[in-house]
Amino acid sequence: MKKDRKKEEFILKMDDEFKYEKKKKKDKDKDKKKDKDKKK
Predict the structure, then answer these.
(1) Residues 25, 27, 29, 32: is their CA dihedral positive or negative?
(2) Which of 4, 15, 16, 30 sits at 20 to 30 Å (Cα–Cα) from 23?
């Protein structure tokens, strides 16, 4: 039982990190787009 709980926490942590990385990437792409618009 205890082992499963640790596994779940691990999965949740991975999920959070994945979402965070995705968001970071999205923000980065947004910034890139902004820079492009600025250059025009």
Answers:
(1) negative
(2) 4
| Residue that is written with structure tokens 């923000």 in the block | 27
**Between the CA of residue 32 and those of 14, 17, 24, what are the distances in Å?**
27, 22, 12
pLDDT per position in the chain (40 positions), as tens? 678 889 999 999 999 999 999 999 999 999 888 888 877 6
d(CA 18, CA 21): 5
Query: Which pTM was predicted?
Result: 0.53
